[in-house]
Amino acid sequence: MKSSLLAALLITAGAADAAAQTYPTKPVTIVVPFAAGGPSDAIARILGDRMKATLGQPFLIENVTGAGGSIGVGRAVRAAPDGYTISFGHLGTHVANQAIYPLPYDMLTDLDPVVLLPSNPMVVVSRNSLPAKSLQELIAWLKTNPDKASAGTAGAGSGSHIAGVYMQNLTGLRLQFVPYRGTAPALTDLVAGQIDIIVDQASNSMQQIRSGSIRAYAITDRKRLAVAPDIPTVDEAGLPGFYMTLWNGLWVPKGTPKEAITKLDAAVVEALADPAVKKRLVDLGLEIPERDQLTPEALGAWHKAEAAKWWPIIKAANIRPE
Ligand code: MLT
């Protein structure tokens, strides 16, 4: 091989290696596929703030909304695989949407996993003026208003939509789903009485539940939330088996240097071990994964398993893009 070409290749490899060693050398962007102020945005901002302390560069949040989060994920998939663009998502955006939308990307092969993030049980909430005091009364009222009772979602395929469809299938309800660009704007309309219910992430509704501006009926989990022990589980409230916990994660575009993935993962592990960060997340009702689950490999395996589990269910539910 000509010596000049070899020299050039060595220089390039050297440069890439140097870049990887010193990563990050500029701000890193986390693309959140839902509106600011919502549950996904809150988790990304809490972690981003702490990751800055570890990696010495700001973590900027870019909210790219629409189509149940699939537009924001597409933005991240198309980004340069250099470690400076991260895709934030969850069961809806990184699993369900592939079974709903004709996406120009493949979630399992166009993204590399970084780390699993805290998960969120869902809570059934309604506007305060709705004439129901228990989940049973709520279901009865919703049944007397078929196709009229409105349920706010963050778009087809979003966590609040999947949970709403799941509740519909379990109860025989017929809800009118009202799509928003995130559950933050949906919650604003619920407080204002513009829509009837949301099956929301607990972390998003917790503050409004505590302030009494919306009513909570049940947590979609087997156990009550430590931070809201007064809200019954779905089993206690009479809709046994309506279990749904929304897990979250971080991914990067396929081909991002391993060193960058390792550093991002380590920064999240450090953030989740920080008592102040932990308290903020737990106070929102979030559950922090075990340490051995906080590796890129663990997220990769979990992602594949969840896709295999949910795609047939989502396809059978015949959910259509908005
Ligand atoms: C949001 O941040 O708005 C949510 O993650 C939306 C959802 O999936 O329900």
Distance between the termini: 56 Å
Number of strands: 9
* Biggest sheet architecture: 7 strands, mixed
Q: Helices and strands, in N-to-C order?
A: HEHEHEHEHEHEHEHEHEHHH
Q: What overall geometry do the principal axes of the alpha carbons give?
A: elongated
Radius of gyration: 21 Å
Alpha-beta classification = alpha/beta
Your description of this structure?
With 322 residues, this protein is of the alpha/beta class. The chain is 43% helix and 19% strand. The protein has helices spanning 3-22, 39-55, 70-77, 91-94, 135-143, 159-171, 183-191, 202-211, 234-237, 258-273, 275-283, 296-316; strands spanning 28-32, 59-63, 85-90, 111-127, 150-153, 176-179, 197-201, 214-219, 245-253. Helix 2 (39-55) packs across helix 10. The termini are far apart. The mean pLDDT is 94. Bound molecules: D-malate. D-malate binds at residues 34-35, 38-41, 92, 154, 158-160, 182-184.
Features:
alpha/beta, 9 strands, binds D-malate
In short:
It contains twelve helices and nine strands.
What is the strand and helix layout of this fold?
Blueprint: H1 3-22, E1 28-32, H2 39-55, E2 59-63, H3 70-77, E3 85-90, H4 91-94, E4 111-127, H5 135-143, E5 150-153, H6 159-171, E6 176-179, H7 183-191, E7 197-201, H8 202-211, E8 214-219, H9 234-237, E9 245-253, H10 258-273, H11 275-283, H12 296-316
Parallel strand pairs: 1-2, 1-3, 5-6
Antiparallel strand pairs: 3-9, 4-7, 4-8, 4-9
